[in-house]
């Protein structure tokens, strides 16, 4: 009886682990492998020529540029917002907390349409912008704005709980020792939130690089100008260039995998810290 | 957040200031989603022509997407010089927005459609079910594949083409025609939402005996899946599907690109452009070029929405509206 029971208790975890592994293989590893398998299905040369196509290269560059603009801005915004909410009590604090999370609950395509209605030619600010020949939509600024909106919560959401948990004793101690605001931030606050901040920045980067729905509304899809990498993948795929689409997708996948590795390294560092 | 908006504003100012420094002609052609390779082929030819004629450099930018979405973007400020669409209604939307001249159909020959296409068939290797015409699609045991006519413009043409064939076959008897269309629709094993998904259902999931889509796409699909040996079949009757073009006058005027925009669209009617179009399986208006490609694009009796159905407005009211004829023959779903 006891032996049977012992066997059963080992069987169940094994079954569950096996199931988890099988599901992961089926739903994550297989599709990822398929991307690379398809990308290389016509050989290395076709793959390279697809990646080196000027329009694909531009899409890669544009996506990188958007991430380079968006991530630092959102790091600054995230730290500022988390600092304000964690350290100060002010009227409307709950409102700010909710506002930070709005992009998580709003579908990106809604965000894109909101920007369209605001900055579009038939929108609120559109006519004024057109008069002054400022192109926001269907150009880099529009893409940056929408990506910034969609990715804005990531840093704040990572940093905020840590700041709240750590409390403000160390910072108060620094004040009594005569440190000024910048010194406190650089010597006390920043080292404490360092890993959470980097973690948030990595998540923000991964999301910014992969953003599709919102950007597709405001991009205008101009090849070689406003076509980001995810949009380019869709275009190639719709146009029956499956190898090109998967080649472009493979660069996105590589970025995602790198982000994943960096993320897990940071995670383990954070737990040690 | 505020600071970042200022940064972006500074960036905008920088970008707009940099633009006029380029002393050359430029065009933005906003087009439908599956025309990427077509214009990649056409544009360098016109750029060379323009350089030879005017001695000026020209760059042509392409934007591709679903053509209704593209029209929306133009209405909101996407500064297209020309549009090359696959739905006339999307250009009419630009007319309503005051961006395109009301008489755009008269601005270029052939109703401003330099090339056109028609719903046609792609069958499996060796055509095992012997599919030759619309009548074969309604036979028992034949599975046609095309997207849902409720959601896809492409499938709407398929539905209307089948209907037009039925009217011709049954001497204008609407009841018999509707019975035929009903049988045809009930043979479809799966209705995808769009053309690309239906192509995948047919080619990759290997469902169905015949894919119905624009003839212009059958060539590309056969080439993409060359190992499967799909064969193109042209039915006896099909529906003229315009691929209309227009100058977006409002934006072109502002940019001073009217001359090159008009020249570009006129050039699409030239033998050189028409040949390239025929290579991509589009039907062309130039008689000599059409004759050269007759074996690739065999003769077919084409009918128009205007002659058979009395125009798109009537089609929308009688066929596509809720509870219309399409709904009545689509009931078994």
TrEMBL record, chain A:
Keywords: Membrane, Sulfate transport, Transmembrane, Transmembrane helix, Transport. PROSITE patterns: ABC_TM1 (PS50928). The keyword Membrane applies. The complex is composed of two ATP-binding proteins (CysA), two transmembrane proteins (CysT and CysW) and a solute-binding protein (CysP). Part of the ABC transporter complex CysAWTP (TC 3.A.1.6.1) involved in sulfate/thiosulfate import. Probably responsible for the translocation of the substrate across the membrane. Residues 60-267 form the ABC transmembrane type-1 domain. The chain crosses the membrane at residues 12-40, 60-83, 95-118, 138-156, 196-222, 242-262. It is a multi-pass membrane protein. It comes from the Bacteria. It is found in: Cell membrane. GO terms for cellular component: plasma membrane. GO terms for molecular function: ABC-type sulfate transporter activity. This is Sulfate ABC transporter permease subunit CysW. It comes from Falsigemmobacter faecalis.
TrEMBL record, chain B:
Gene3D superfamilies: Periplasmic binding protein-like II. GO terms for biological process: sulfate transmembrane transport. InterPro entries: Sulphate/thiosulphate_BS (IPR034408), Thiosulph/SO4-bd (IPR005669). GO terms for cellular component: periplasmic space. It is found in: Periplasm. Residues 1-23 form the signal peptide. SUPFAM superfamilies: Periplasmic binding protein-like II. Keywords: Periplasm, Signal, Transport. This is Sulfate ABC transporter substrate-binding protein. It comes from Falsigemmobacter faecalis.
